[in-house]
Every structure is written in C-alpha cells, then in structure tokens.
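User: I'm writing a short report section on ligand binding and want a predicted complex to refer to. Could you take this sequence and FE2/S2 (inorganic) cluster and write out the structure as tokens? A short remark afterwards would be nice.
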Amino acid sequence: MENKNYTPVFDDNEMKTVEYHKSKYPAQMAAVMPLLWMIQEKYGWISTDAMKYVGDLLKLPHDHVLGVATFYSMYFKKPVGKYHLQICTNVSCMLCGGYDIFNHISRKLGIKNKEITPDGIFSIEEVECLGSCATAPMLQINNKEFHEKLTTEEADKLLENLRNSN
Ligand code: FES
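Assistant: Sure. The structure tokens for the complex follow:
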C-alpha cells in the first residue's frame, strides 16, 4: 500500500466486533489496543486517519490513540513489506550482536530502518525489547514468528527462505 493517509471504515460485522471489545472493559479507553489491532489486520498498517477513527469510535482524544499506537512497536505506523522484520537492539540484544544483525540485514536488503524493498517483500525496523532478552539477539517477523539467538549466517538463511517462499 502507498504511504498515504487512508481513511478506514469498518463494515457491520466489524462494528459488532468493535461493540464486543467495548463491552469487555469497564472503561472504553481499554479497547484502544484491540481496535488498533483490527485496523492493522484489515489495512496492513495504521494511518493517522485510522487513529482518529478509533478515537471517534471510543470517544477518546485522538492524541490518546496516537500515544498508544506510537508506544507499541507491534503497531505499524507506516506501510510495511510482506515480511516486516523487527530487530531488537535494546541492551541484551545490543550486547549479543543485535546491531550486527540489523546492519547485516540492512546492507543485504539495501534498505534502512523503516524502509521497504522495491519489490515490497521486506521491510526492516529497529525496535526496543521484544521480551526475549535471555535468548538475544532477537528478530521477529510480522509480529508472529520469532527467531532467537540469531547469527548473521542464520539471518542469511532466513532471508533466502522467505524470498523463496514467494
Ligand atoms: S533486549 Fe532484545 S529482547 Fe530484550
């Protein structure tokens, strides 16, 4: 998807899910995270208008939604590639070669932080702790697949496998 500020719309079924999330919590504010997740699952990333949309659905200030979306690296604030690689460079990972992994992948793909390869297959992002400090360095793909104690050789294999699976 192009890097533009799309305006999201939930259909009737999705609005039922919105109501379900709203009903789960005593305060509507708590439903921000599942609603942002719904947006990301539908559109691939979360635009500024999408954050406003979630704020309007929950009757919350837009700034509050923006604050939640920007705090968590699991929410993508820009379009991402088919495989979005998030590499942790926080303390444990940094000490165990997190920057070596990040720089290696960046060089290999020819893209910098938060950029997408021209074919749209890969994007990379340097992130804070992913909760796997004891098995650093850590890389995750699309918030779903985790690779721990990663080496540059394993990173090469991983990229090759992902590319071949297209
Ligand atoms: S510091 Fe990298 S996972 Fe915690």
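A remark for your report: The first strand starts at residue 83 and ends at 88. The mean pLDDT is 95.
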